[in-house]
């Protein structure tokens, strides 16, 4: 897998899955709205890795391996063992009802970004998003005032930014404790005769080392327990069993595609 780390918070457009974010204002976007849809995640159907906040580790660990990627060691939910594929999003944009939807996807097409002088955060909307259309059912403005829908979206983005900063502090704590290690994920296919085939490496990634965690002083483990970090650490380690689930989903999807009748 390639390095999927997003450069979040930049209005330049270098935000994962965002194409044309613009500062939200009634002059430019007063007639726009969001098209309501039961399948709103088509924009992410080729995203094999999605940023994750530390407070999401628990629910996300039920579905996805959680890794740390890039120079900033950004937590990521891995949603496929192949690039340009998401095993939890259909071609129409529906999300698997049994899957946890990361806040990063629920926030779209809104995002907070730095202004040109890096002095403050401003709310932006990706005007290139398929769901952003003139006259959309979920209107953005009533006159020059944001609608309740837009206010809720702004609140969500603000809360997300707070969680992003909290996640950064969590990662820095793990760095300071030297708890990271480089790991590999493998898949061993089965030969036609039922014997194990040659192992295939799926990914190289950073994760929390169980050995390093056990080596911490008892006092430090107590601190991690009391501040809630220990449960997030365990959730990340447990999530790595999800590689097997992704392989099983891939085999099921490939089998379904191969079994599908041709036109």
Provide an overview of this structure.
- Strand 6 (110-114) and strand 7 form a beta hairpin.
- The protein has helices at 26-29, 57-60, 103-107, 148-176, 210-214, 218-226, 229-239, 242-259; strands at residues 21-23, 32-34, 49-51, 66-69, 74-78, 110-114, 121-126, 132-134, 138-139, 141-142, 145-146, 180-187, 200-208.
- Helix content is 32%, strand content 21%.
- It has one domain (21-253).
- The two termini are 33 Å apart.
- By secondary structure, the protein is of the alpha+beta class.
- The strands form five sheets. It has a three-stranded antiparallel sheet with strand order 1-7-6, with helices on one face. It has a three-stranded antiparallel sheet with strand order 8-2-9, with no helix packed on it.
Tally of helical segments: 8
Mean pLDDT rating: 90
Strand adjacency order, main sheet: 1-7-6
What gyration radius follows from the Cα positions, in whole Å? 21 Å
Most strands sheet: 3 strands, antiparallel
H/E element sequence: EHEEHEEHEEEEEEHEEHHHH
Unreliable stretches covering 5 or more consecutive residues: 1-13, 259-263
The amount of beta strand, in percent, is 15-25%
Number of DSSP-assigned strands: 13
Terminal Cα span = 33 Å
Shape assignment: globular
